[in-house]
């Protein structure tokens, strides 16, 4: 038995269970899917070329198992549910973007540009490098540093909760800093 995968599995089992249960919303089904993931990961472990990517590989197997489950059930969501969910996410995103705009505006110009191009306009970093006439690694560094500065700014005023994908699911004002609006 490979001890590396067992160690990783023990570490990830709770996280995977929460991840799957968040998607299928059924504790018994969650256990079945997580068990199937472990079996597939254990059986196919030798086919993994880059062992450093074990965690992301297990998450990919998990996502595939969830999709497979819903395909088997021919899961269909009514268009009403999809529309309501989309509007809720749009509303939260627009509220949060309104709150974060002043933080972005307060960044030094070179970081502000990088954040707007990368995270608001969704432009690839290679293209950002070309537009700003800097190296690719310089663009990556600028975006990363801009994100760090932005995060430290809004962490002083806001608490933002994200899901496992990094998507915003909730936020609230701290009201502990008098400089926050």
Automatic annotation (TrEMBL):
Domain RNA polymerase sigma factor 70 region 4 type stretches: 104-150
Keywords, comma-separated and alphabetical: Sigma factor, Transcription, Transcription regulation
UniProt-listed InterPro entries: RNA_pol_sigma-70-like (IPR039425), RNA_pol_sigma-70_dom (IPR014284), RNA_pol_sigma-Z (IPR014304), RNA_pol_sigma70_r2 (IPR007627), RNA_pol_sigma70_r4_t2 (IPR013249), RNA_pol_sigma_r2 (IPR013325), RNA_pol_sigma_r3/r4-like (IPR013324), WH-like_DNA-bd_sf (IPR036388)
Domain (RNA polymerase sigma-70 region): residue spans on this chain: 15-74
Any one Pfam family match given in the protein's UniProt record, by short name: Sigma70_r2
Gene3D superfamilies: 1.10.1740.10, Winged helix-like DNA-binding domain superfamily/Winged helix DNA-binding domain
Listed SUPFAM superfamilies: Sigma2 domain of RNA polymerase sigma factors, Sigma3 and sigma4 domains of RNA polymerase sigma factors
PANTHER family with a match to the protein in the record: RNA POLYMERASE ECF-TYPE SIGMA FACTO, RNA POLYMERASE SIGMA FACTOR SIGZ
Family note: Belongs to the sigma-70 factor family. ECF subfamily.
Name of this chain's protein: RNA polymerase sigma factor SigZ
Organism: Polaribacter sejongensis
